[in-house]
Amino acid sequence: MATTISARARVRARNQITIPEQIVEAAEIAEGETLIVELDPARPDVLRVRRVRESYAGALSGVYGDARAYLEDERGDW
């Protein structure tokens, strides 16, 4: 089982938060990435931070088998 990494961060002027270095390294966050911060009003003590994918290209490769073979087969039926 993976170990949870926890670190303190302080909210600074203009609502800025510096993500602690050990979190940045473990999550492989790069400069310029966009992150979403979510709050569930039912749990105001919990903030969830997630990465915004810049591209979904190739995200499902392999999920539906060999796409090229499928397309060739379909094209053959035309």
Task: Describe it.
With 78 residues, the protein is α+β, with helices and mostly antiparallel strands. The chain has one domain (11-76). The protein has helices spanning 21-27, 67-76, and strands spanning 11-12, 16-17, 35-39, 47-51. A two-stranded antiparallel sheet has the order 1-2. Strands 3-4 form a two-stranded antiparallel sheet.
List key phrases describing it.
22% helix, two-stranded antiparallel sheet, 2 helices, alpha+beta, 4 strands, 78 residues, single chain
Strand order of the largest sheet: 1-2
For the termini, the CA-CA separation is: 50 Å
H/I helix tally: 2
Helix content: 10-25%
Give the secondary structure arrangement, pairings included.
Elements: E1 11-12, E2 16-17, H1 21-27, E3 35-39, E4 47-51, H2 67-76
Antiparallel strand pairs: 1-2, 3-4
Brief digest:
It is built from two helices and four strands; from the N terminus they run ββαββα.
